[in-house]
Design goal:
The complex is a heterodimer of chains A (about 100) and B (about 550). Chain A is elongated and about 50 Å long. Chain A has one domain: Helix Hairpins (Orthogonal Bundle). Chain A is mainly alpha-helical and about 100 residues long. In chain A, α1 packs antiparallel against α2 and α2 packs antiparallel against α3. The N and C termini of chain A lie far apart (about 55 Å). With about 550 residues, chain B is mainly alpha-helical. In chain B, β3 and β4 form a beta hairpin. The C terminus of chain B is likely disordered. The chains are: A mainly alpha (about 100), B mainly alpha (about 550).
Chain lengths: ~100, ~550
């Protein structure tokens, strides 16, 4: 039996790695993957807590988060494709049309 | 078998009663789906029909919202449904009214604009309806699950709308930035939610509010061992607040807003700056006033064991509101693109709106709602005027495009002037009423720090006049730089006229709106807070960096 604190520690680690990646990485797709990593860190927290409490609402929440993440991925990739068509670059530093 | 039958009839009653509660949203969803189907069937030059269908949907939704409102005001009680996942109270109804008005005006603004951009498509209007459905559930959700899903429904629809001009690089870029930062902020918000779930074992806001005082006490009994969970409580509160600050574009989480506002189609900029912001504030209010009311003041320490008290969210919101007002206004001073300028202005207005939440009394909550309502009308008006300047070959979003407007379109200039004065808070426009209530709410608390915050807000309001007057100067004094005439479409004229009439009407006769918002501000479960001044606390407030809010028990 793995204690709850291990799950929480791992999910906090996943979340932090994801959040750091959003700030460090420059490729749009990688940034997007880092955001997914953050969401999965949250999912792990919710599942672990839900098992710990013996309460299903946490697991329900995870289903919803997964569904929302899928919808977000569809929209996000569509936006990334449309920007790639016009610009032929995925580097966020090249996206500098909108600046003062 | 009888048990099953009983369950089936129970389910029917529940479905019928609960069905009434979500009728406005259900109507919107149906009309949005119908619009998607209709869009496929119509030829390319007839797509405008979809816009009118969507407007009819908003009208039907308004009617059913009105019926719901009379229903709850005759029972004088809020109605909950779907296992306490949503609540219909006056707070929800007023916000829903705000979103529907905002959406209807945005659709009117869009019709001609999309023709000019060559992107007249039906799914645009359907997406607006879908996002409004999300917003309406954000205002009435009292469960973290409902709130999260409806937030995402709104956000995902708006990501697409921001990037709606597929061939425009600026629109693409705005959509990408908005999407990446929006998804990031959802992740942050979600982590806060998961921690709250871990601390309280429930996702229902009322249950969370009931459980938090125990968890946030300095000597919480965690499975038999005393533990100080207050830091974790604060961490989850800060994560949720950070997520919400992103959504309402408060400094330091505002950097997406100028880019997204500038690149998005102007009609969507208008929609984002009013409806999306108001919905985020509605959710902010739900989360913090219903879910975490006891974290407002200081979390009490335990002097016997030498555990210090910790500040609550009023301090966090106060600091954020102050820097948002200052930064938003100062950055707006140097902008030359009008959409970007208004983005910074909307950031500073987010700071003003936060003041209502911080004040924590009845006046503050009234101000919070009334300000968002008025802001919806006046900001849509300003963006409507910018859309009116969009002609073939002229983007209409530079300050120079306003030069000498009074000679080309005198009525448009007058309306723009009224909206700008209202944004600046000059009587007798509606903006004055909103700001007056905000400042009154802060001053009524009697807390010296909050009074200082009100003074800062008044000062910043004066600074904001500078850049609003820049528009007026360009319109009245500068010589005409662009001879091409304007042609305002009928829907745009209607939207502007409605907005200007309402702004003036609320400015001179605000009582009906005030009564409505006061009802909303006294909704069940909205906890007010009294900042009591303790004699001992007065010396500590003079020290820099002291905790400004003395701990007092919350009062209904």
């Amino acid at each position: 039996m793995v204690p709850l604190s291990w799950y929480l520690g791992l999910s906090a680690l996943l979340f932090t790695i994801g959040a750091m990646g959003v700030f460090i990485k420059r490729n749009t797709i990688t940034i997007f993957l880092c955001i997914e990593l953050m969401l999965n860190g949250v999912n792990l927290t919710l599942v672990a807590l839900s098992g710990f409490f013996g309460d299903v609402s946490g697991q329900l929440f995870v289903f919803m988060v997964i569904a929302v993440a899928a919808a977000e991925a569809a929209v996000g990739l569509a936006i990334i494709i449309s920007i790639f068509r016009n610009r032929e670059s995925l580097n966020v530093d090249d996206a500098d049309t909108l600046k003062l | 078998m009888p048990a099953l039958l009983q369950a089936a009839t129970d389910f029917q009653t529940i479905a019928r009663q609960a069905g009434q509660l979500i009728m406005p949203e259900a109507i919107l969803t149906l009309f949005a789906c119908a619009a998607l189907i209709l869009d496929v069937m119509l030829p390319r030059n007839r797509k405008r029909v979809v816009a009118w269908v969507c407007l009819a949907g908003i009208g039907a939704s308004l009617v059913s919202l009105g019926i719901l409102y009379f229903n709850i005001s005759s029972r004088e009680a809020a109605r909950t449904g779907f296992f306490d996942m949503i609540i219909i109270d006056n707070y929800a109804v007023v916000f829903k009214l705000m979103f529907l008005i905002g959406a209807a005006l945005s659709i009117l603004l869009s019709i001609k604009y999309l023709d000019t951009e060559g992107e007249q498509r039906g799914e645009y209007y359907a997406l607006i309806l879908f996002s409004v459905t999300g917003m309406m559930f954000m205002a009435s959700g009292v469960d973290l699950l409902t709130l999260f899903i409806s937030l995402e429904l709104m956000a995902i629809s708006v990501y697409i709308l921001v990037g709606f001009l597929k061939r425009d690089q600026r629109s693409n870029e705005a959509a990408m930035k908005y999407f990446l930062l929006g998804a990031f902020s959802s992740g942050v918000l979600l982590y806060g939610i998961s921690l709250v779930y871990g601390l309280t074992g429930t996702t229902n806001l009322a249950k969370i509010a009931a459980a938090l005082p125990t968890v946030a006490s300095a000597n919480y009994n965690l499975l038999g061992t005393p533990a100080d969970m207050r830091y974790l409580v604060l961490l989850s509160m800060i994560l949720m607040a950070a997520g919400m600050f992103f959504k309402v574009a408060a400094v330091p989480f505002h950097m997406w807003a100028p880019d997204a506002y500038e690149g998005a189609p102007t009609s969507i900029t208008a929609f984002m700056s009013v409806a999306v912001k108001a919905a985020s504030f509605a959710m902010f209010g739900r989360l913090f006033l219903y879910g975490l009311p006891d974290l407002r003041g200081a979390l009490e320490g335990d002097p016997a064991n030498n555990i210090a008290g910790l500040p609550g969210w009023a301090l966090l919101l106060g600091i954020v509101a102050a820097i948002t007002m200052v930064w938003g206004n100062l950055a707006a001073l140097i902008q030359n693109n009008t959409k970007r300028l208004l983005a910074y202005s909307s950031i500073s207005h987010a700071g003003f709106t936060l003041l209502g939440l911080i004040a924590g009394n009845q006046t503050g909550y009234t101000a919070f709602i009334i300000y968002l309502f008025i802001y919806t009308l006046m900001n849509l008006g300003v963006f409507g005027c910018i859309i009116a300047l969009r002609r073939r070959g002229i983007a209409g979003d530079r300050m120079e495009d306003f030069n000498g407007l009074v000679r080309k379109a005198p009525w448009l200039t007058v309306m723009m002037t009224i909206f700008l004065l209202s944004l600046g808070g000059i009587p007798p426009t509606a903006g004055f009423v909103g700001k007056l209530y905000l400042f009154m709410g802060l001053i009524e608390t009697g807390n010296p720090w909050l009074v200082r915050l009100a003074i800062l807000a008044v000062l910043m309001s004066a600074v904001s006049l500078y850049y609003y007057i820049r528009f007026i100067r360009a319109m009245y004094i500068e010589p005409e730089s662009e001879p091409q005439p304007l042609s305002l479409s009928r829907p745009l004229q209607t939207a502007l006229a409605v907005a200007v009439l309402l702004v003036m009407l609320i400015g001179v006769y605000p009582q009906p709106l005030i009564r409505l918002t006061q009802k909303a501000a006294t909704s069940q479960g909205l906890k007010t807070y009294v900042y009591e001044e303790k004699p001992a606390a007065t010396d500590s407030t003079d020290q820099p960096g002291a905790v400004p809010l003395p701990p007092t028990p919350p009062r209904r």
